[in-house]
Amino acid sequence: MTPLEAGTPAPNVSLLDQNGESISLFDLKGKKVLFYFYPKAMTPGCTVQAQGLRDIKAELDTHNVITLGVSIDPVKRLGKFIERDELNFTLLSDEDHAAADAFGVWGEKKFMGKTYDGLHRISFLINEEGVIEHVFNKFKTKTHHEVVLDYLNNK
Q1: Could you tell me the pLDDT band of residue 144, with boundaries at 50, 70 and 90?
Q2: 36 in Cβ contact with 68 (< 8 Å)
Q3: Which of 59, 90, 110, 122 has its CB surrounded by the most CB atoms within 10 Å?
Q4: DSSP string, 6-64
Q5: Are 55 and 86 in contact (CB under 8 A)?
């Protein structure tokens, strides 16, 4: 697994959102996008991470940042996650992990002594020109939102 690095053009991926509508990164040029990969909707760590981003939406808006959460969950599960946790941003379904492959975040993981391929928790801040500005790969789920805001406020 080799995640894309800052300075690399973001792959032009198109994924279905929680409503089954196609969202393309190409269509979001002109805005900053926090494209964050998380393993599975409605699990404890992913819930804490999503709630943190939900709670700082106003601050992200002041930086012209759109949040898009990406997992390999089916569309139907994403809608349930948004409803259950009152999320105020878009979730995208990457069931075949094509976007995860394109961003280099699909690869070997280890959990409880087992090795398997899965989605790694990594976030990409994509600038208005569609280029990866920053990669967030060292954070705890409960402080992910703080790490993102610190970066935005101090650049």
Answers
A1: very high
A2: yes
A3: 122
A4: TTSBPP--EEEETTS-EEEGGGGTTSEEEEEE-S-TTSHHHHHHHHHHHHTHHHHHHTT
A5: no
**How many beta carbons lie within 10 A of that of residue 58, not counting itself?**
8
Q: Check pLDDT > 90 for residue 119.
A: yes
- With the C-alpha atoms ordered 46, 33, 127, 105, is the resulting torsion angle positive or negative? positive
How distant, in Å, are the alpha carbons of 7, 49, 76, 130 from that of 54? 27, 9, 20, 23
Residue 51, pLDDT score: 98
Strand partners, 108: 117
| pTM score | 0.95
Rounded Cα gap, residues 128 and 109, in angstroms: 32
Question: Which sequence positions are flagged as catalytic?
Answer: 46
Name the one residue in this structure whose structure tokens are 């976007």: 99
Q: 113: which DSSP letter?
A: T
The helices-and-strands tally (H runs, E runs) of the chain is 5, 9
